Amino acid sequence: MAQKPGIPKGTRDFSPVEMAKRNYIFNTIREVYHLYGFQQIETPSMETLSTLMGKYGEEGDKLLFKIQNSGDYFSGLTDEELLSRNAAKLASKFCEKGLRYDLTVPFARYVVMHRDEITFPFKRYQIQPVWRADRPQKGRYREFYQCDADVVGSDSLLNEVELMQIVDTVFSRFGIRVCIKINNRKILTGIAEIIGEADKIVDITVAIDKLDKIGLDNVNAELREKGISDEAIGKLQPIILLSGSNEEKLATLKEVLAASETGLKGVEESDIILSTLKNLGLKNEIELDLTLARGLNYYTGAIFEVKALDVQIGSITGGGRYDNLTGVFGMSGVSGVGISFGADRIFDVLNQLDLYPKEAVNGTQLLFINFGQCEAAFSLQVLSQVRAAGIRAEIFPDAAKMKKQMGYANAKGIPFVALVGENEMNAGKVTLKNMETGEQQLLSPEEVVAAIS
After folding, report:
1. Distances in whole angstroms, Cα of residue 307 to Cα of each of 164, 223, 237, 428, 442
2. 233 in a domain, yes or no?
3. Is residue 199 part of a domain?
4. Is 336 within 8 Å of 150 (Cβ atoms)?
5. Count of CB atoms within 10 A of residue 325's CB?
6. Which of 139, 236, 265, 337 is the most buried (most CB within 10 A)?
7. Residue 385 is part of which domain span?
8. Which runs of E-coded beta strand occur in 323-429?
9. Per-residue pLDDT at 178 exceeds 70
10. Chain centre distance of CA 353
11. Does residue 427 sit within a domain?
12. 226 and 255 in contact (C-beta within 8 Å)?
């Protein structure tokens, strides 16, 4: 008996219905990116390991899928090296390429390689899969899509403002109510400075980032474990628990961070972004959240995160400002800001809230029943007319029993069926059946298009 086939853990097959839903997500995001002047690029699924390694930290390097060299990849290896069983060293010898871990590092490489062809500021978007050799679990996959948009070559905060407008527009189109959270790396640096723990900035922010999940007492316990003094933790409490409107929070921060030049710069940037957005009438709430940290080693200015309000799920979009995207490839001083929509989590949210428009999921709109060779020939002519008018239509390929053909229409959720017999052919018309109501009408091809449209 043949072994049942399978797929690698952490990967998925998508059915036609699921693909229709996913394409609705990708197309919606793509349309909004185009509205704001972003242009699409694509980069290869694989990059050289020299491009990928060392960009994601030690843990990230371990999660890279490495691709074995073609041909005799053992040539050039000594018996001693083979017997050492040193996986990392051996991989470096017979793997020169790897699957991309994200879209940001390939984008940085792209900018450096194509700098002479690019007009700056460069507004690009990418919608492509990425791969991580992570432990698969619910909501975490080894292969998943990222939908990134970045502006590089500009320091203007108008870029941050427009990215927040994009986020608001996309989720308004999806019908998902969200809270857009914003913070600034400079504010967090200022907080660490004024409590006397500037060198512990990463430990502090990693801990307070968990406030929603583990509560204040556990955050404070984690801070103590990291060697942060009780005095500093005490100074941190009113900042962590800061409440009120965005304006009230900013006013308090101006006083609290008065001794930190960096911190005040972060407050100023946040004030400009939030006050500009306030006048643009966002449909979703935007909140200054001082517990938002997001990969501090990477971001240098404004940082963003988006939470769905009606579903318990993690962040569904994130991003921020970075000062030196291309520095690792020898082209320093290129500042940028970007966002990434989590397509897989958005897919789950839309499913849970049942927010997919009917037309986004339905495929074929009209099925022609096949009664035989003559009827099929007539149907094909009408098919050409309705397809030219934009109606998604097909004909059942075999002159099978009526029950089988109608069962096919029901199984695929096709809303209309066209019946063509001798009477219809003589009249140059078709009988259109509405599968939901059961109503039947004798119509010309033009009337069929009008009825379905």
Report:
1. 13, 25, 24, 56, 51
2. no
3. no
4. yes
5. 25
6. 337
7. 362-452
8. 336-341, 366-368, 393-395, 416-419
9. yes
10. 18
11. yes
12. no
* Residue 439 belongs to some domain of the structure: yes
Task: Look at 48-52, 295-299, 397-401, 418-422 and tell me which has the smallest mean pLDDT.
Answer: 295-299
201-208 and 230-240 helices, crossing angle to 10°: 50
Quick one: three-class SS letters along 205-235? HHHHCCHHHHHHHHHHHHHHHCCCCHHHHHH
Reported as a pLDDT band with limits 50, 70 and 90, residue 436 is very high
CA pair distance 131, 101, nearest whole angstrom: 5
Kindly state the tokens that stand for 45. 């699924």
pLDDT at 3: 85
Distance CA 180, CA 30 (A): 20
Biggest alpha carbon distance in the chain? 93
Backbone angle region of 95, left / alpha / beta, with phi > 0 → left and psi within -120 to 50 → alpha:
beta
* Structure token digits, residue 86: 């040193």
**Which pair of tokens denotes residue 160?**
């941050």
Predicted local distance difference test score (pLDDT) of residue 380: 97
Between CA 321 and CA 338 the distance in angstroms is 7
What gap in Å lies between CA 305 and CA 82, rounded to an integer? 46
Please state, in angstroms and rounded to a whole number, the distance separating the CA atoms of residues 104 and 321. Answer: 12
**Residue 407, domain CATH:** 3.40.50.800
What does the alpha-carbon distance between residue 191 and residue 233 come to, in Å, rounded to a whole number? Answer: 11
- Distance CA(205)–CA(289), nearest Å, equals 12
Helix then strand then coil, % of the chain, to nearest 5 = 45, 20, 35
CB of 246 closer than 8 Å to CB of 287: yes
Cα–Cα–Cα angle for 46, 52, 57, rounded to 5 degrees: 140
> CA triplet 178, 216, 209: central angle to 5 degrees?
50
Beta partners for residue 366, in sequence order: 393, 416
**What is the count of structural domains for the chain?**
1
